[in-house]
Amino acid sequence: MTKYTATISKNGQLVIPAPVRHKLNISAGTKLSIQIDQNNNVVLSKVPEVSDWKKLLANIPDERVELDQEGHYDPDKSPELDDWMRKG
């Protein structure tokens, strides 16, 4: 894990180091989620943008899948789902 130091300005703004901004593709207007964990650590996460969701969802199969009473599917009837389940 790489550690960086960030500075809070006198206006209460957080200055995120350039290497972090570049790695996370953060620029002006990017939304971040701020959480405080049980040890009072601040956790910043980039809020996914529409383009992030499009990339994520692009590889999820879109087919009708029938499940039996036990929740199993037939790989022959749902080949895209089966491939996705096996290979990710």
Q: How would you characterize this protein structure?
A:
- With 88 residues, the protein is α+β, with helices and mostly antiparallel strands.
- It folds into two domains: 47 residues, Pemi-like Protein 1, Chain: D (Ribbon); 40 residues, no CATH class.
- The protein is 27% helix and 16% strand.
- The chain contains three helices and four strands; from the N terminus they run ββαββαα.
- Strands 1-2 form a two-stranded antiparallel ribbon. A two-stranded antiparallel sheet has the order 3-4.
- A hairpin with a 5-residue loop joins strand 1 and strand 2.
- The longest helix has 9 residues.
- The radius of gyration is 21 Å and the shape is elongated.
- The protein starts with 6 loop residues before the first strand and ends with a helix.
- Keywords: DNA-binding.
- This is Toxin-antitoxin system, antitoxin component, AbrB family.
- One of its GO terms (molecular function) is DNA binding.
